[in-house]
Amino acid sequence: MTAPQLASVRYLVDDVQAAVDFYTTHLGFTAHTNAAPAFADVVRGPLRLLLSGPASSGARATPADSGAAGRNRIHLVVSDLDAEISRLQAAGLQFRSDLVSGPGGRQILIADPAGNLVELFEPRS
Protein backbone atom coordinates (compact mmCIF):
# COMPACT_ATOMS: atom_id res chain seq x y z
CA MET A 1 0.00 0.00 0.00
CA THR A 2 1.29 3.46 -0.90
CA ALA A 3 1.37 6.33 1.60
CA PRO A 4 -1.13 9.10 0.82
CA GLN A 5 0.21 12.11 -1.09
CA LEU A 6 0.42 15.23 1.03
CA ALA A 7 1.08 18.80 -0.04
CA SER A 8 3.62 20.37 2.30
CA VAL A 9 3.93 24.04 3.25
CA ARG A 10 6.67 25.38 5.53
CA TYR A 11 5.98 28.11 8.05
CA LEU A 12 8.83 29.65 10.03
CA VAL A 13 7.87 30.06 13.68
CA ASP A 14 9.52 31.50 16.78
CA ASP A 15 8.17 28.81 19.12
CA VAL A 16 7.55 25.37 17.62
CA GLN A 17 5.52 24.02 20.55
CA ALA A 18 3.27 27.10 20.63
CA ALA A 19 2.62 26.63 16.90
CA VAL A 20 1.82 22.91 17.34
CA ASP A 21 -0.57 23.76 20.16
CA PHE A 22 -2.27 26.46 18.06
CA TYR A 23 -2.83 24.28 15.00
CA THR A 24 -3.89 21.15 16.89
CA THR A 25 -6.09 22.92 19.46
CA HIS A 26 -7.82 25.47 17.25
CA LEU A 27 -7.68 24.39 13.60
CA GLY A 28 -8.14 20.62 13.57
CA PHE A 29 -4.60 19.54 12.70
CA THR A 30 -3.06 16.35 14.07
CA ALA A 31 0.52 16.33 15.36
CA HIS A 32 2.73 14.11 13.20
CA THR A 33 6.36 14.70 14.18
CA ASN A 34 7.49 16.81 17.11
CA ALA A 35 11.18 17.57 17.47
CA ALA A 36 10.62 20.87 19.27
CA PRO A 37 12.24 23.29 19.67
CA ALA A 38 13.70 22.86 16.16
CA PHE A 39 10.88 21.36 14.09
CA ALA A 40 7.45 19.77 14.06
CA ASP A 41 4.83 18.97 11.47
CA VAL A 42 1.07 18.80 11.71
CA VAL A 43 -1.42 17.33 9.25
CA ARG A 44 -4.96 18.23 8.23
CA GLY A 45 -6.41 16.29 5.32
CA PRO A 46 -3.90 16.41 2.45
CA LEU A 47 -1.92 19.32 3.99
CA ARG A 48 1.30 18.72 5.91
CA LEU A 49 2.33 21.95 7.64
CA LEU A 50 6.04 22.06 8.44
CA LEU A 51 6.73 24.22 11.50
CA SER A 52 10.38 25.23 11.49
CA GLY A 53 11.91 26.95 14.52
CA PRO A 54 15.07 29.08 14.42
CA ALA A 55 17.32 26.03 14.95
CA SER A 56 15.86 23.99 12.07
CA SER A 57 17.70 23.53 8.80
CA GLY A 58 14.68 24.92 6.93
CA ALA A 59 14.82 28.19 8.84
CA ARG A 60 18.59 28.50 8.48
CA ALA A 61 18.27 28.20 4.69
CA THR A 62 16.04 31.28 4.50
CA PRO A 63 17.69 34.45 3.12
CA ALA A 64 18.43 37.09 5.76
CA ASP A 65 16.17 39.68 4.11
CA SER A 66 13.13 37.38 4.53
CA GLY A 67 12.68 38.06 8.25
CA ALA A 68 8.94 38.74 8.37
CA ALA A 69 5.98 36.58 7.53
CA GLY A 70 4.85 37.15 3.95
CA ARG A 71 1.49 37.77 2.39
CA ASN A 72 1.08 34.07 1.61
CA ARG A 73 -1.27 32.01 3.69
CA ILE A 74 -2.70 28.56 3.96
CA HIS A 75 -6.36 28.32 2.99
CA LEU A 76 -8.67 26.12 5.06
CA VAL A 77 -12.20 25.45 3.83
CA VAL A 78 -14.87 25.38 6.54
CA SER A 79 -18.56 24.55 6.23
CA ASP A 80 -19.85 27.15 8.73
CA LEU A 81 -17.64 30.22 8.95
CA ASP A 82 -19.86 31.99 11.47
CA ALA A 83 -19.60 29.02 13.86
CA GLU A 84 -15.79 28.91 13.40
CA ILE A 85 -15.50 32.63 14.13
CA SER A 86 -17.60 32.28 17.28
CA ARG A 87 -15.61 29.23 18.45
CA LEU A 88 -12.24 30.91 17.92
CA GLN A 89 -13.36 34.18 19.53
CA ALA A 90 -14.59 32.20 22.55
CA ALA A 91 -11.09 30.68 22.75
CA GLY A 92 -9.67 34.22 22.95
CA LEU A 93 -8.11 34.34 19.49
CA GLN A 94 -7.86 37.60 17.56
CA PHE A 95 -8.59 37.92 13.86
CA ARG A 96 -6.29 39.77 11.47
CA SER A 97 -9.03 40.90 9.08
CA ASP A 98 -12.70 41.63 8.98
CA LEU A 99 -15.06 39.12 7.43
CA VAL A 100 -14.94 39.60 3.65
CA SER A 101 -17.57 38.41 1.17
CA GLY A 102 -16.78 37.92 -2.48
CA PRO A 103 -18.11 36.13 -5.53
CA GLY A 104 -16.71 32.76 -4.41
CA GLY A 105 -17.64 32.88 -0.75
CA ARG A 106 -16.65 34.45 2.57
CA GLN A 107 -13.29 34.56 4.33
CA ILE A 108 -11.48 35.83 7.40
CA LEU A 109 -7.82 35.78 8.42
CA ILE A 110 -6.29 34.61 11.68
CA ALA A 111 -2.59 34.46 12.55
CA ASP A 112 -0.62 31.76 14.32
CA PRO A 113 1.59 32.74 17.30
CA ALA A 114 4.45 33.66 14.91
CA GLY A 115 2.24 35.86 12.73
CA ASN A 116 1.78 33.44 9.81
CA LEU A 117 -1.64 33.92 8.25
CA VAL A 118 -4.39 31.32 7.94
CA GLU A 119 -7.43 32.00 5.80
CA LEU A 120 -10.69 30.40 6.89
CA PHE A 121 -12.96 30.19 3.84
CA GLU A 122 -16.59 29.21 3.38
CA PRO A 123 -17.47 28.69 -0.28
CA ARG A 124 -20.68 30.16 -1.65
CA SER A 125 -23.28 27.40 -1.85
Computed structural class: alpha/beta
Number of helices: 3
**Oligomeric nature of the chains:** single chain
Q: What is the helix/strand order? A: EHEEEHEHEEE
Low-confidence stretches: none
Give the N-terminus to C-terminus distance in angstroms: 36 Å
Query: What is the averaged pLDDT score?
Result: 89
* Helical amount: 10-25%
CATH homologous superfamily title: 2,3-Dihydroxybiphenyl 1,2-Dioxygenase, domain 1
How many domain regions? 1
- Spatial strand arrangement across the major sheet: 1-4-3-2
Helix/strand layout:
Elements: E1 7-12, H1 16-26, E2 30-35, E3 39-44, E4 47-52, H2 57-60, E5 73-77, H3 81-90, E6 100-102, E7 105-111, E8 117-123
Parallel strand pairs: 1-4, 5-8
Antiparallel strand pairs: 2-3, 3-4, 6-7, 7-8
Organism: Lentzea tibetensis
InterPro entries: Glyas_Bleomycin-R_OHBP_Dase (IPR029068), Glyas_Fos-R_dOase_dom (IPR004360), MMCE/EMCE_epimerase (IPR051785), VOC_core (IPR037523)
GO molecular function, one term: methylmalonyl-CoA epimerase activity
Question: Care to describe what's here?
Answer:
The chain has 3 helices and 8 strands, in the order βαβββαβαβββ. The strands form 2 sheets. Strands 1-4-3-2 form a 4-stranded mixed beta sheet. Helix content is 20%, strand content 37%. It has one domain: 2,3-Dihydroxybiphenyl 1,2-Dioxygenase, domain 1 (Roll), CATH 3.10.180. It has 125 residues and is of the alpha/beta class. One of its GO terms (molecular function) is metal ion binding. InterPro entries: Glyas_Bleomycin-R_OHBP_Dase, Glyas_Fos-R_dOase_dom, MMCE/EMCE_epimerase, VOC_core. One of its GO terms (biological process) is L-methylmalonyl-CoA metabolic process. Keywords: Metal-binding.
